[in-house]
């Protein structure tokens, strides 16, 4: 996640979301989802791609599979 | 698609039962609810308590009453309360999720209102990302896909102008369309880089502005899809008082096409225009925008730059690769 948004790993915490990470725009978002899919070997269904807009929501997606 | 989540209070929003224990707020859980509220999920309360007790407790919580759109706090059964909530919100009961810690309540609702989804507090975020639309103005899912395809597609071109020409861009420009007030306000709040003044406007301010000045909105679509409203220009009297473009569409020369159109409209009723650039921490890249458009720099006003244009002298700047609709 840190890599996708070009921020330091320490800057990512439970409260991280697109609201407080400046570089979290739509393009970086899709890049991050693609990276997560590769990293965790998962497929995020199309209708949920846009919803994973915070660290916690992403974790819930990864853990939910 | 679900629209609202209705929460029980005791042992859901906090640990403990009001009136019996000292309750301890579930801070993380309340934070999650607030996050969802801020991203378009309607939040409601439905709980068996005394209403006054809940009001008092909420005052000291993170999740205050400000985030709550609807509530039914009484001793009646939750099934009829949920029906009332749906009516009040003007949505179907099938768009409602009930979040409760009590197996008994959940079974009761499932039996009588099977279309209402019932979840336990632990399942909040998973449910939210599966059944709600949290994207809001951020762009819809298909817009991510489109953006991704644009990037892929652009890789096969070596020169940028033939790539842009092949995108087949269509600009749709409206003036003072009340349906766009919300989006215009959002853009003023969120646009940093390509924002000539950095002024933030609320919904009410934009609505007011549409009454006495001209608020132009720009939507762009191309061969991959529709980017939605991504540009705003405000003209008051003989001055451009605001101009911004979402970063989603930057780098395509759209700002020039947008301005060409606007000047073409304004020249019908005006002779000249003033414009102001206000530097902010983030809008450095727009510093010479009015120079590029051929506006004449007149003077500094503190750090601001004031420009002037005699409209008859304006020469269209956009490449001939846009269509207007």
What's the structural blueprint in terms of helices and strands?
The complex is a heterodimer of chains A (65) and B (325).
Chain A: H1 2-5, H2 26-40, H3 46-49, H4 55-63
Chain B: E1 4-7, E2 14-15, E3 24-25, H1 27-38, E4 42-47, H2 51-59, E5 70-73, H3 78-89, E6 96-99, H4 103-112, E7 117-119, H5 124-131, H6 141-154, H7 160-166, E8 169-175, H8 181-190, H9 203-212, E9 214-222, E10 225-236, E11 239-245, H10 254-266, E12 272-277, H11 289-292, E13 296-301, E14 304-310, E15 322-324
Parallel strand pairs in B: 1-4, 1-6, 4-5, 6-7, 8-15, 11-12
Antiparallel strand pairs in B: 2-3, 8-9, 9-10, 10-11, 12-14, 13-14
Helix pairs in contact in B: 8-9
Protein described:
With 65 residues, chain A is an all-alpha fold. Helices cover 49% and strands 0% of the residues of chain A. Chain A contains four helices and no strands. The radius of gyration of chain A is 11 Å and the shape is globular. The mean pLDDT of chain A is 83. Chain B has helices at residues 27-38, 51-59, 78-89, 103-112, 124-131, 141-154, 160-166, 181-190, 203-212, 254-266, 289-292; strands at residues 4-7, 14-15, 24-25, 42-47, 70-73, 96-99, 117-119, 169-175, 214-222, 225-236, 239-245, 272-277, 296-301, 304-310, 322-324. Chain B contains eleven helices and 15 strands. The longest helix of chain B is centred in the middle third of the chain and has 14 residues, at 141-154. Chain B is of the alpha/beta class and 325 residues long. Chain B folds into two domains: 4-134, HAD superfamily/HAD-like (Rossmann fold), CATH 3.40.50.1000; 139-324, Gcn5-related N-acetyltransferase (GNAT) (Aminopeptidase, 3-Layer(aba) Sandwich). The mean pLDDT of chain B is 90. Chain B is elongated and about 75 Å long. Chain B has an eight-stranded mixed sheet with strand order 13-14-12-11-10-9-8-15, sandwiched between helices. The relative contact order of chain B is 0.10. The chains are: A mainly alpha (65), B alpha/beta (325). Chains A and B meet through helix 2, helix 3 and helix 4 of A and helix 1, helix 5 and helix 6 of B.
